[in-house]
Structures are given as C-alpha cells and as structure tokens.
Amino acid sequence: MLKKILLIIFCVFLSSSVLAEEPTSKGIYLNQSSLENLEFLKNIITKSKEAGINTFVVDFRYPSEHYQENINLVKQNGIKYVARIVMFPGGGNNSQISSLAYRQKKYKLVEGAINAGADEIQLDYIRFDSKQPASKQNAKKILQVIKWFKDKLAKKQIPLQLDVFGISCFGESLNIGQNLVTSLMRNMQLDHITQ
Questions:
Q1: Comparing C-alpha atoms, which of 138, 191, 126, 193 is closest to residue 180?
Q2: What's the structural domain count of the chain?
Q3: CATH no. for residue 129?
Q4: Which of 124, 145, 146, 178 qualifies as a cystine partner to 163, CB 3.0-4.6 A?
C-alpha cells in the first residue's frame, strides 16, 4: 500500500544569503490523500521523528475535515506544516499569469491553508508553460505574481517559499520566466527556494 502513495523525500536547503543562521529544515513531501490516510500518517510521523525530519510539505488542493484533523496531529508532534499550492498546473499561459481573478482564486487556497495551520506557504509551478515563446518579459510577469503573494503573506507574517524548475538553476529560462539571480533572489528576499 505504501508503494502506491506518492511520497517524495527531500531536504529543504536554506540559502545562507536568504536566511542567516536559521536552523536547517529536513522535510518530506506528502500529497493530500497521503495526509488524509490516518494510519499512514501516524506511521510516517513516527519514522520522520526518528530520522530527524522536522517539516512536512503537504499539498493543499481543497479543505476537508480529515485534512484539518491530520494537520493538527502533525503539528502536535512538533512538525512544521508547509502548505504546497500549485499555482499554474504544468505552467501557465499569458492569460492566467496576467489575471488578477486567477491570483485571487489561488489566494483563497492560501487562506484555507493558513486557516488549517500552515506555518509557511510554498508556491509550486509558479512559471510559464515551457512551450510559451521565449521572452525577457516572462520573468517580469512571474515576478509580479510572486510579489503579489509575498505582499499579502507578509501582512500575515507567513513566510513564502517557491519551488523552481531545475533548469532555471543553470541560468535564466526565457520560456518559463524563472530567473533566480536577477529576479527572484535579489528582488524578493524570499524565505525559501526549493528545487
């Protein structure tokens, strides 16, 4: 049964240029159905604590009674809850990325995760679809979306994390609009960036 459940183990590495002298987080990723399986969750909490894992990054796609109960269990065990919100599944198009209504819809998910007890918010797929035409404007548009969420979360004192597409670690990706050095790291002073 465990083989059927998507569980990606990873470490969240903190950049010393972003967070000075913060303790390292060691985390695992759980999809929402894994979190809502109480038997599995109890087992993974026990094993995680034994391994020194102190963070669970958990998908938040919709609120549910089991989700809330199981997040409470996670937090009662001293494990940080980072809510993962997929912004643009598979990457967005120009219409989605420019749409304030689309951002507001996704922000309702963010608020739901915060209400469920999220310590931090992680935005994933915060990029254009890789089939979009290459343009320097793509990174500027993505940065506007990130700033919009960062400003809203700062008012609530909730740290923001971003997942980045691995290709952008080697340099700016003009198609997807991720530029770690000039756009994300220098301008945003993000709390965490995860690859």
A1: 193
A2: 1
A3: 3.20.20.80
A4: 124
SS3 37: coil
Quick check: 13 pLDDT over 50? no
Tokens 């929402």 -> residue: 32
User: What are the residue ranges of helices labelled H in the chain?
Assistant: 32-35, 38-51, 65-76, 94-98, 100-115, 136-155, 186-188
Strand partners, 122: 84, 161
For range 66-81, the mean pLDDT? 97
Among 178, 170, 58, which Cα is nearest to 118's? 58
Residue 55 has pLDDT above 90, yes or no: yes
Residues in Cβ contact with 156 at an 8 Å cutoff, skipping those fewer than 6 apart: 114
Q: How far apart, in whole angstroms, are the C-alpha atoms of residue 148 and residue 152?
A: 6
CA 192/CA 195 separation, integer angstroms: 10
Which residues span the domain enclosing 77? 2-14+21-194
Provide CB contacts within 8 A for 15, sequence distance 6+: 185, 193
- Residue 139, both tokens: 């990174």
Distance of CA 104 to the CA centre of its chain: 17
| Mean pLDDT, residues 179-185 taken together | 56
CB atoms within 10 A of CB 177: 29
Q: How many CB atoms lie within 10 A of CB 89?
A: 10
Give this prediction's pTM. 0.80
